[in-house]
Amino acid sequence: MIVVERLSGGYEGVPIVKDVSFTVEKGKILGILGPNGSGKSTLLKVISGILPATTGTILLDGKDMKAYNARTLAKKMAVLPQLHANAFSNTVREAVSLGRYPHQTGFFSSWSELDERAVQYAMAQTGVTRYEHTPMEILSGGEQQRVFVAQALAQTAEILLLDEPTNHLDIAHQRQILDMVRKEALECGLTVIMVLHDMNLASLYCDELLLMENGCMRAIGPPHEVLIASQIEEVYQARVATYAHPEIPKPQITMMPAASKHQQRAVIVKEDFKITTDYIQLKSNIPLKTVSSAVHNPGIGWYDCLVNRSVAGDYIIKDVKCEVAEFLQREHFSLTSTVVMLTAVSTELVALNEYKAPFGGIFVVVTAGVGKAVDVSRTHERQDEPYIGTINTWVVINGCLSEEAFFQAMMTANEAKTKALQSENIRDERTNTIATGTATDSLLIAATQKGAEMLYGGPITDVGKIIGKGVFETTVQAIQNYKMKHRS
Ligand SMILES: Nc1ncnc2c1ncn2[C@@H]1O[C@H](COP(=O)(O)OP(=O)(O)OP(=O)(O)O)[C@@H](O)[C@H]1O
């Protein structure tokens, strides 16, 4: 455990780091972030004793760091500096072995089994064993960086100070080094303080983050309390946005380029839609931000082509995703920029309407296969296999929606669809109650993200009102088309 209390320090009387305090418990990782010149490396140098502290104290396991002599301190704390002054005549093994110097009584005179094990372990953990006998100078920058990390690890200290350990490393090696650091922290109780420029890596790997600004602490805490977009924007003077990591509960940050999203006004027009016997298509000349439950490219993304493909009523394919990919290739659609839904309804039964509004307006496109509609409040009573029967709804908006508005627009559209089923007296034939949808309905909201900004998409917002009316009317029309065909 390391406790830093009101620490200040700098270079020859020039104060750089001012009044910094924090605690890192044994086995925890603290990441230091901050813009260039904010004092991250200087802070690490003062903590490691390379630079003297002008004020403040550092306690290692409760004992003032000043009370340790150089050799005992080196056994306690290992440092990977940002710039490496290295005698490049060494081989990798020799460079890593330098990490064992605090454990030697006379230099290399008492090489023990323990020293050998530590060096072998450090080389293995950093993936440099195969370069063991290679001279340092012929390694790439990333390979050398891993050797320096191995050198610090070979010191087998309880506290590891790392200044930009992922410098020069490709993503696979960044992951290897940071996974190794985390494993050492979790399994061996290694306490780590590391300077990282990459906020996303810092978020993924650190228990706490310290954000530096002009030599002072701007914020400290778990990643979600430090990586707040407005705070990062202020400190770095750069526009950013945060989003959730897809797999683990850690925030991620993305840079927003200077170009304004409101620069041009792009508009989807009716001529952008095409209806063939096989599919209904929207081809946009700009990518649309899309939220959907489609079969191909579902979720949130940017796509310039939407396809609602009509398949045979007996379309039961084991690997639907694979079959859809084959269809896209056959029809010369891009796999990466096309969203695909499937319907058993023939494309001539589609309802497609435009609704103009001061903000720009929307298009609603619906195919409604309601032959096997279900009442969602009663589906728990049935044991049958899911069957095809699908209402596919697209809402394409000429406007700019917030994240919140996208999800509210989905709710608004779904409520309008359910109301249309009620209005058309579509029933769940097993329960004879009003149906709320079918077993495999799909919904898509797409927006140009240009022009008018819409913060909300609920039923009484400008965009919500028109989605409500548009989806209701268009779904009714699609249901009537379906009824007409299936009556005859
Ligand atoms: N040896 C030195 N002598 C005098 N001033 C220095 C020295 N090294 C760094 N500084 C100054 O201290 C300030 C903080 O530098 P430091 O290297 O700690 O920043 P940093 O946050 O690590 O930056 P970076 O992200 O660019 O690595 C800078 O203004 C820098 O010019």
TrEMBL record:
CDD domains referenced in this protein's UniProt entry, alphabetically: ABC_Iron-Siderophores_B12_Hemin
Entry keywords, A to Z: ATP-binding, Nucleotide-binding, Translocase, Transport
PROSITE patterns: ABC_TRANSPORTER_1 (PS00211), ABC_TRANSPORTER_2 (PS50893)
Domain called ABC transporter: residue spans: 2-239
Signal sequence region: none
Listed InterPro entries: AAA+_ATPase (IPR003593), ABC_transporter-like_ATP-bd (IPR003439), ABC_transporter-like_CS (IPR017871), AdoCbi_amidolase (IPR002808), P-loop_NTPase (IPR027417)
UniProt-recorded Gene Ontology molecular function terms: ATP binding
SMART domains: AAA (SM00382)
Name of the protein in its database record: Iron complex transport system ATP-binding protein
